[in-house]
Amino acid sequence: xxxxxxxxxxxxxxxxxxxxxxxxxxxxxxxxxxxxxxxxxxxxxxxxxxxxxxxxxxxxxxxxxxxxxxxxxxxxxxxxxxxxxxxxxxxxxxxxxxxxxxxxxxxxxxxxxxxxxxxxxxxxxxxxxxxxxxxxxxxxxxxxxxxxxxxxxxxxxxxxxxxxxxxxxxxxxxxxxxxxxxxxxxxxxxxxxxxxxxxxxxxxxxxxxxxxxxxxxxxxxxxxxxxxxxxxxxxxxxxxxxxxxxxxxxxxxxxxxxxxxxxxxxxxxxxxxxxxxxxxxxxxxxxxxxxxxxxxxxxxxxxxxxxxxxxxxxxxxxxxxxxxxxxxxxxxxxxxxxxxxxxxxxxxxxxxxxxxxxxxxxxxxxxxxxxxxxxxxxxxxxxxxxxxxxxxxxxxxxxxxxxxxxxxxxxxxxxxxxxxxxxxxxxxxxxxxxxxxxxxxxxxxxxxxxxxxxxxxxxxxxxx
Amino acid sequence: xxxxxxxxxxxxxxxxxxxxxxxxxxxxxxxxxxxxxxxxxxxxxxxxxxxxxxxxxxxxxxxxxxxxxxxxxxxxxxxxxxxxxxxxxxxxxxxxxxxxxxxxxxxxxxxxxxxxxxxxxxxxxxxxxxxxxxxxxxxxxxxxxxxxxxxxxxxxxxxxxxxxxxxxxxxxxxxxxxxxxxxxxxxxxxxxxxxxxxxxxxxxxxxxxxxxxxxxxxxxxxxxxxxxxxxxxxxxxxxxxxxxxxxxxxxxxxxxxxxxxxxxxxxxxxxxxxxxxxxxxxxxxxxxxxxxxxxxxxxxxxxxxxxxxxxxxxxxxxxxxxxxxxxxxxxxxxxxxxxxxxxxxxxxxxxxxxxxxxxxxxxxxxxxxxxxxxxx
Lengths: 464, 376
Prior knowledge:
Chain A: Residues 1-25 form the signal peptide. The complex is a heterodimer of chains A (464) and B (376). Chain A has 464 residues and is of the alpha+beta class. Chain A folds into 4 domains: 6-124, no CATH class; 145-265, Thiol Ester Dehydrase, Chain A; 269-377, Double Stranded RNA Binding Domain; 382-463, 2-Layer Sandwich (Gyrase A, domain 2). In chain A, 36% of the residues lie in helices and 29% in strands. Chain A is built from 12 helices and 19 strands. In chain A, a hairpin with a 5-residue loop joins strand 2 (23-30) and strand 3.
């Protein structure tokens, strides 16, 4: 009956408070070869009944071993060999001394049916007794640096004027930082609740570490205190693989990473949704630690729709994270099949409540938000609109070139409506920093001195 | 003498030839009467009233064991005999066409309530897992839970326990007709014909099994003819049965449909009998490896047979009562055969446990004898 469980590791749950079930104690046997056998039956059929019978049988064996009962049974066998009686004695002694019997191998027989019960025989065979050991590594607070050994690969880069070795070393250093960031992020998981969901599985973890490491590389230097070359070898097409051991400064990684994480984790968002969804979403976003602002460049657009059928209603809810320019950074849709309620005036409220109360849906929405924020940073920051009155510009044709050279700015595009030049660009810093940078860098191409900038909102700067 | 011999031989040859010519063609078919009589329920005889000749293995027995079962309802192996198809039920009535006395009232008949009755009745025999179409009760209950237990609890429960996805659709088609007879004093005569189909909604295949045939119910099965009598004068209704009143017509049609569903159930139980494996026999007591979980009903009449090398050999009949996962039965009559004698002798002396090469099974004969009395 049912598949044979075979030999496998089993937990000898000694003092587990099992739920009161009708498990009948059966025989406990000690065989001549030193194996201890217990038979148990549990009410029901299938895996749960088998598991229950097995657990009870194992507990029975454990009790018998601890109490020394196996020895008294075994003593009656005069013909038992010395190895077997020694093993029983040793097992009993160790169990009494508090030896953790988990991990001992047991055999479970094929289950068989007896009336409404399912029965199994579990046997603990003679086997070497030892102790298991585990090793773990963690962020050691006592040290100021973390040493990691990493491998980097590189090929000659004529564009940047770097040799293959330099590229390989840079690659290795980036990986070193990435690794340390990974260790630190794991330690700090609970701190950034917004971004926690990203780091829940391994592939996302790598993506996150790598992303942060790349950001760190462009933003700051000196995270690696020192490094030494351990090995290098040639790769195909004149490439080089280097192995280095790098000491990464913990504090700097911590500071820079947390800065980036904050940037990713809490940009401001505006909510565009019909009532009552808007207030529900705002409440939920506040709970998630996301800052709300009606003038934010990032907008959470939500569209609820009631699917009505035969007097019942279900909710179809779609959420998009976009910016003012219409770029979509993330999308999320609920699972409309989750619940249907009687269609009435409050159905929409109730359904929104239930859908936003469900943990996996919350996490999925949260993850989409987090991903969207990460994409914003990845793409070079939010889109800002800069309006400059034409009369200030002496060389408007150079506007695009000048703005492109601004530190932290990218994706510049220019348009003109006669009176104003409108520049759209992504900027990863604060709006105030952008204003300061603009005033300085635009000087060479202006006809007269620029007036004081008017910041219409977080993403619109006007020189009227 | 020679001539006489020749003649004799010739005569013999002619006789042989003529004998060949007079051979009759094989008679394998015969003319049958197509009946339009009302259908009737066929139920099992009580095991206590069986005689030796009655002990034969009925159709559709299935000797599949529980070895393939995971006993996990939501993830059961396809080869497990306890795995039941998940179905949603539909009751579809064809439109009543034409004009005439009582036709309008018959046309107004609403069968949505019948659907719920059908679901309830079918769920009880445990041959299918039924996904209810009763949206109003379900959504009302969720609304109440939302008020009483809160959104989080409802959301978690809803996410945990998703609605079952049906494998098949069970559709019942009904055909309703009416005719009236008589002149001044006339009576209405209603007929309801029911057919059932099991359909794979994706491939649109109509399954050939279970085949429940056609069920015909006539108004005279549920009402005395005098109850459907009415009196007309000058072509106007005067008194008697109110054939034009949909409430009155509904009452009759409901009874007819209810009877039709009862017959349908009995056919379903014969078409899909409960089968179980006999784990042991002690005296006259038999122990079966499954019970309610395999659709064994109380007071089930079951034929006990040995299955070996593809052959079945009946050994007796038993009256069986189920528990949740197993069933116990009483052998009411052992078959008069050497095999049955051997087994019964061994069972008398202790517990007889069937061997793996000659397993013993039990198959239900059909609807238990007291089912119609107690359950319909």
